[in-house]
């Protein structure tokens, strides 16, 4: 049995940076964002259902999903957002469960930005939160995504608060420190998770 560690954190916290460090240790990474993209890829049941509801305006000229159009649509039509969530969330959840079951490393990381918001903590045996203060989130997101500060604040408001994430955390990585300190924290947790995995597989 592979122990599943749910990795989450707010926008700009450095989830990908942390996940990449675990990946470098040979740990399987299951990324919810990648799975969500696959669920609406050309030829998928997800995309077919979206086109059946919204028609060709939901598509780019190459037949792929026009994400910007769909985001705009569901933002201004709550019923459509509810429909889309009802379509995609169960589909993505099932794919994540399958991917975790197929992981070959002693433990795997399930990287889910909205782990808390979408009540997905039950998919993991441990929850690891990558934590930074809000000012750091804002500064990093502005530098990375080249969006307005107003937009960053809107994203933060739509996500779980820092306190809500920390309330469900079994483990926390403080990602405001030096690279060396980040490595130290990852190394310590890696050993913890390997020990947990050994115990889990030893239990009758």
From TrEMBL:
InterPro entries reported in the protein's UniProt record: Depp_CoAkinase, P-loop_NTPase
CC terms in the record's Gene Ontology section: cytoplasm
Superkingdom, taxonomy of origin: Bacteria
Residue sites binding ATP per the record: 12-17
Keywords for this protein: ATP-binding, Coenzyme A biosynthesis, Cytoplasm, Kinase, Nucleotide-binding, Transferase
Family of the protein in this entry: Belongs to the CoaE family.
Name of protein: Dephospho-CoA kinase
Gene: coaE
């Amino acid at each position: 049995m592979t122990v599943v560690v749910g990795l989450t954190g707010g926008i700009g916290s450095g989830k990908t940076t942390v996940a990449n460090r675990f990946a470098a240790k040979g740990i399987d990474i299951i990324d919810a964002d990648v799975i969500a993209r696959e669920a609406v890829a050309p030829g998928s049941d997800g995309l077919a259902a979206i086109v059946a509801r919204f028609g060709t305006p939901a598509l780019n000229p190459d037949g792929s999903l026009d994400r910007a159009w769909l985001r705009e649509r569901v933002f201004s039509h709550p019923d459509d957002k509810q429909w889309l969530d009802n379509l995609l969330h169960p589909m993505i959840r099932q794919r994540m469960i399958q991917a975790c079951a197929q992981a070959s490393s002693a433990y795997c990381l399930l990287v889910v930005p909205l782990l808390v918001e979408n009540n997905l903590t039950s998919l993991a045996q441990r929850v690891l939160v990558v934590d930074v203060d809000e000012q750091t989130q804002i500064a990093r997101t502005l530098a990375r995504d080249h969006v307005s500060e107003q937009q960053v604040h809107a994203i933060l408001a739509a996500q779980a608060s820092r306190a809500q994430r920390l309330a469900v955390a079994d483990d926390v990585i403080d990602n405001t420190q030096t690279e060396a300190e980040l490595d130290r924290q990852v190394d310590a947790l890696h050993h913890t998770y390997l020990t947990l995995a050994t115990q889990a597989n030893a239990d009758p």
